[in-house]
Fold this protein.
Amino acid sequence: MKKLSWFNKTMYFFNIVLAVLTFLAYVLPFLAPKFFPFLSVLTLILPLFLILNGLYFIYWLLQFKRQVILSGLVLLLGITFINKFYKFSATDLPREEKDFVVMSYNVRLFNLFKWIQDEDVASNIRTFVNDENPDILCIQEFSHSADIDFKVYKHRYIFMQGDKIKTGQAIFSKFPIINEGHLDLPSSNNSVIFADIKKGKDIIRVYNMHLQSIKISPDVNEMSENIDEVNQKKSLVVARRISRAFRKQQQQAEIIMEHKKSCEYPIIICGDMNNSAFSYVYRSIRGTLQDTFEEAGKGFGRTYNFRYYPARIDYIFADPKMHVKSFTDFPEFTNSDHYPIMTRLSMD
């Protein structure tokens, strides 16, 4: 440190603070949010930590300073996290007759409350689904208000809840549904449904989840970087709200984990998790399943219209017995606050 200028000493101090926070974020996916709810918020910004550590690494490397070791070590330890945030190459294997396509999409009640100034949102979504033609379609925040009937799907399971405003989950399938049901999530308007789908000689269980929302505005005004007292208090309120949501998500994840233990079929879990791929909830629900974006996607895999940040909070997890042949996201299809995601699978 003696050979560093006062500016570099200051830079290195913040580098150390960043390294400590990044290490904490690395550990948090292995720790239940109920024990460290406030710290769990760090998992949402782990990609930002990785980027900043990368900039520090370049900064010290250009000066041939040994301080480069700290950021280099942080990046080396976090190399397994990078694939969850950004994929450099995609997989798109040839189509075969045995392949089947699964799509997941949070449609935000088909724009029931006119969040988007477009009268054709519902019909746009229907046209999009018809064009992409998935074999299994999982919809979150489904609503009958738009009077949309996906007629190509002869088999469906729709679970609605709520008093004045009915919202729910839906699974549409071209293959027969031989069993169906929903999981009760205590003290929540969110839900998880499942359907056992018979495809040829195989039976596949599909879970469609919509976990507790952290209620962050897409325009990130709530996450303002201003340091005045009002915004500091507001940021604290937001952080506390997120930590409460994480605790509830943990409970919901544990319900899913317990329910799937008794399933004897290959499993697909998809839907809106409302949490990042660096979280305890993600790690718990995924378990030994394959993240289809990690297996075959490309780029950031952005699934939520969060300004300035490529948030990925919607997922399709596939059983290890399945082969992930392609993954597609649709960040240009802006008819909801979420973007649809789709994967092509086959049974090994």
About this structure: Residues 70 and 76 are 10 Å apart (CA to CA).
